[in-house]
Each structure stands twice: as structure tokens, then as C-alpha cells.
## 1
Amino acid sequence: MKKVTLFSDGSALGNPGPGGFGAILRYGDKEKEIVGSEEHTTNNRMELRGVIEGLKALKQPCDVEIVSDSSYVVKGINEWLDNWVKRNFKKVKNPDLWQEYIEVSKPHKINAHWVRGHDGHIENERCDKLARDAAEAVKNL
């Protein structure tokens, strides 16, 4: 199973407001950037959307290390998701995205790792810029 690192970040201007996400997939010395935006969304939705779109870009089952500055995403994946499923996502924000995450993560072995945002982590800073630029672009449409 290939080992892949997925760096991801999300941004929303206004929260809710125009939003964007940026992700970097790294396998060995190869990288792929993934960027997207939505006209009206929240920061948490964009944080999770970056992870989902990164996983969707994988062509085969992989051992994926997700690196994010979102404790919502990291704790959701590592700690909360099993109980949310048992409760059928009652009183959970963004159940549509969490259910989509479950589907796209099924073929993969996932481990999520939290990093402090805006703290000089090179890939996190790149993803943050991709996400902010995407949010600004959709804001200016």
C-alpha cells in the first residue's frame, strides 16, 4: 500500500461566506495541489472538503497521513466519527460531508495528525494560501 501524505486547509471569509480549500497530496517526491471554492460556506466545511477532495484524487487504496490545522477535522476523524455514526449523526454539524468522508475514506488506511496553524509549517502555510486565494476568487465573482 502506497504511503501518501495529504496536507489540507480551509478558509471562509465571513464564516459563513465565500470559502475555499487547498490540499497537497505527496507521494515520494511527487506532489499534486487540489483547490476549490464555494460561494457560501463555513470554515469547518472547507476544512473537511479539502480532505474529501484530496482523498477523491487518489487512484488506489493508500496509507494516508492527513495533516491539518483543524482540530474539528482531526478529532472528528480520530475520535468522534464512530459515535456520530452510532447516533446516526444526530446533533452533528455537516453530516453530509462526514458521510461523504466515510465513503471516500473506505479504501484507505487513514491517520489524521494536527499541526498548529500559522506557525511556519511549510505545507500548512501553502494550503492556507491556496484556500484563502480560492475564497477571495469566488468572493470577487
## 2
Amino acid sequence: MTSPHDDDPQPTWTAPGSTTPPPPPTPPVPPAPLPQAPVPPSAPDLTKPAAPPAWGNQPAWGNQPGWGNQPAWQGQPGWGAPPPASWRPPALQPGIIPLRPLSLGEILDGAFRAIRANPRVMFGLSALVVTIAVVIQSVLTWYAYGLISDALTDVLVDEGDIFVTGEGTGSLAAPLSQLASAPITSLVTTILTGWLIVSVSRSVLGQKVSPGEVLRNKRIWLVLGFTILLAVVVGVVSALVVGAVWLLASMDAAGLAVLVALVGGIALVVVGILVAVRTLLVAPALMLEGKGFRPTIARAWRLTRGSFWRLLGIYVLVTILIGIVSQIIVTPAAILSALVFSDPDGQSFASIVVLGVANIVALTLTTTYLSSVVALLYVDVRMRREGLDVELARAAQQAG
């Protein structure tokens, strides 16, 4: 059994009278070295004031990120981080479109917005003008149908055709009578397009124009004159091609006549598309710029330079869309008039009325939308080429 004093040094017992020397003394244990204090860094120079940290590099406080390192919130860049290269501030939009170059979707949507922004002009005035035009066209169609049908009957009877009937002459007279009255609708549509362009241009700035202001615009006669001039030029060129083909055919040069007809037809189509696109912005330029007739036409021609294919693609797309809408409205009316109001002697007055109502609705919708698209194309081209968006933004801020 051990005790707590077993490790202590025990005394040595010796007999009395013994001469045993005492044990040598135990050498002292040197003390352990004291720990050395760390060498402090060089003390700052307190005679000079320390520079404050920059705002964008503030240290974290309370486990929060510094001021200049704020995290992005809902996809937006942080407070102190620079915006990405593709980011730009939103454009001013006082009206139906943002004041910057437009995309296809913004043009198509802006046309609907233009109709909703001023329905009194875009729908009310359009419906009134189209109704008057269609009524005049229907009366002329009905009157021309009777004249053409009688003339065809007389010609066929004089030639000894014993199979001539009222239904046969009616099927020939109906399309000819509609073709004879078609210029009325074309001219009225041109005038209406010019008027509606004024309303769309005001809607871009968030303003409205009254029907009276639209009707008092005298520059509509310039648009009408340009349309008639262009139609005359196209008619003369087409007549020259047809005359050349007829002359070659009368000279027994059938192969050459076919070649001229083929080449001339293709050339007419190509040149017609080129002229139609390059003069697409003439109507809005004449209505909105207030300059002379010839300088405005030349300027509108130059505006389309570099934008030909874009204008052509958008115009063809919109034409296809409004054509589909027009057929959706007109085709059921034509089937109804043929089944219910058919006349064995030809086209009845009731069928003309039914087709006229359908044409009023279709022309009102298609003309309104197409004119809105043309006006927005004019604004878009000028914003891309001339910085019109800056002028429009300044005008909107001054008006506001």
C-alpha cells in the first residue's frame, strides 16, 4: 500500500558513532524560460490623419455586405455595381409606343393601341367614309351590271350563239361591273389613309385629334394627287406592254409575243413591288411634314433607303393578315347572298346589299389597321435615321 509521501526523499538511518559522510546536495533546477511577448507591428504614424475608406468599399458591418457590394435584386444590378452593357434605361412613352426604334411586335401592337386611343376618328370617321364609298360603289355596280349584261347579250346574239341565257351573261357581267366601280373604293381608301395617319401621329405623343381637325387638313389633296399620278404611270406602262404583245401577235410573231409578255409581266411585278415599297412613306410624309409636293416625294423615297427589305416584309405580313380578316368577313356574306338571294337572271339588289354591308365592315377594319401600321413605319424609320425620338421626347416633355 502506497502513501502520498512515498515519493518524498527518506532520511538515512546510521548507527551511533559511524562516520558515513552525508549525501551530496541536489543541484538546483533552473527555472523555465518566460514566454516571449509577440513583437508588435510598427505603430501607425499618428501625426498624419488616416484617409477615410471609399464609399464603394465599405467594410462589412453586422455580417452585412458592404455598400458597394449589394447583391442583385430581382434581376437588377447591385447598387454599386455597373449595369451590364446590354442594359439601358427605359424609353419615354407618352403615347402608344416607346420613343425609340420599334420592333415588329411593337409596331403591330401600336396599331391596335392607335385605334383604341382615338376611336372617334379611327372607327367613327372610317366607318362613315367607307359606308359612303361602298354605297356609291354598290349603286354603280348594280347600274353597270345591267348595262354590261345587256351589251353582252346583244353581242352574243348577233354572233348567232343560241345558248345565250341570262345566267350566262350574268356570270360574265358581275366581275366586270365590280371592276368598273373599284376605283371609287381605291380613291376613298387613299383619302381615309391620309386622314388616319394624322390621328396616329398625335397618338404617339399621347394626344387626340378631333374628326373636324382631320377633315380640315388640306394636305389630303396632295396624297390623292400622288395616288392618281402613280396609278396613271402604272396604267401607261402596263398599256405599253400589252400593246407590244398585241402588235407582235398581229404580225404572226407568236413566239416573240409570248416572250415579251413573259418578260414584261415579270418586269412589271418587280418594278411594281420596288415602287410600292419606296413610295410607302409618301402619304405620311405629305400629311405630316408640311413641305412641297416634289421635295416630299423625293425625301420619302430617300427615307426608305437601307430599309427596303424590312418595310417589304412588314407590309407583306400586314397585308396577308388583313386579307385573311377581310375574307373571314366577306366570304360568309358571299355564300349567304348566293344561297338565299340568288337570282337566275344575275345579281339581285338584295345580294348587293348583303355584300355591301360585309365590305363596309371589312374595309373599315383593314383600312384602319393598315394606315396605322404605315404611320408607325414612318415614325420608326425617322427615329432610326434622323433621331426623331429625341425631338418627340422633347415635345412630349414640353406638352406635359
